[in-house]
Amino acid sequence: MNADANLTGSLLVAHPSLRDPNFRRSIVFVSQHSPEDGAMGFVLNRPIDTEVNEFADVPVYYGGPVDVGQMLLTSLQWRENPSMVAFRAFVAPVDEESMPGWTHGLRVFAGYSGWTPGQLESEVAENTWIVITPTREWIEMKNPGHAWRQVMHAASPLLHLLSEEPDDPGLN
Fold first, then answer.
1. Which terminus of the chain faces fewer neighbouring Cβ atoms within 10 Å, N or C?
2. CB atoms within 10 A of CB 141
3. Domains in the chain: how many in total?
């Protein structure tokens, strides 16, 4: 990875060897990144079974280990021509009038993922993360519980094999 590469809008897929429980088998959308300021993102494949009263029909996800007590309302939308992810975060109070055009793709995240300057670049260089370009399939993620394995299966035969390792090999 080029040291000056900006990963904003990319997906980080946890390498099978990543054991940190906060990120094991996760797919993270990088919402903001610069080598000088660090990075911020949200785990896309960890829905949690809870409701936020103000947003009863909006799915809630574990966003990452930083500030997990804070609920963040976001919109991730796949756009065509050019193909890209449109991302926006909202601050309270929020209603439909304050977010025209952004009511599709709403998600609430409990917390977020964060990296200090240089930390993400170092982790990518150490192959902790596999950086992929988002697609409609990964942003709209119909089955979050199986998404990580699907990415691994598509990535390479070796990653496919490594992704099949059980969480606790002692139970094998």
1. C
2. 20
3. 1
Which two tokens mark 77? 């939308």
Residue 3 within any structural domain of the chain: no
Helix (H, G, I), strand (E, B) or coil at 130: strand
Does residue 81 sit within a domain? yes
SS3 for 52-110 is: CHHHCCCCEEECCCEEEEEEEEEEEEEECCCCEEEEEEECCCCCHHHCCCCCCCEEEEE
CATH number of the CATH domain containing 35: 3.40.1740.10
What's this model's pTM, rounded to 2 decimal places?
0.90
pLDDT attached to residue 121: 95
- Round the CA-based radius of gyration of the chain to a whole number and report it: 16
Domain span including residue 150 = 11-171
By the 10 Å C-beta count (0-12 exposed, 13-18 middle, 19+ buried), 152 is classed as buried
Nearest to 72, CA basis, from 42, 46, 37: 42
Q: Is residue 163 part of a domain?
A: yes
How far apart (Å, rounded) are the C-alpha atoms in residues 15 and 131? 10
Q: Give residue-wise pLDDT tens across range 91-125.
A: 766 666 767 778 788 999 999 999 999 999 999 99
- Strand, coil or helix: what is 135? coil
In a domain, 2, yes or no: no
Whether 52 has a pLDDT exceeding 90, the answer reads no
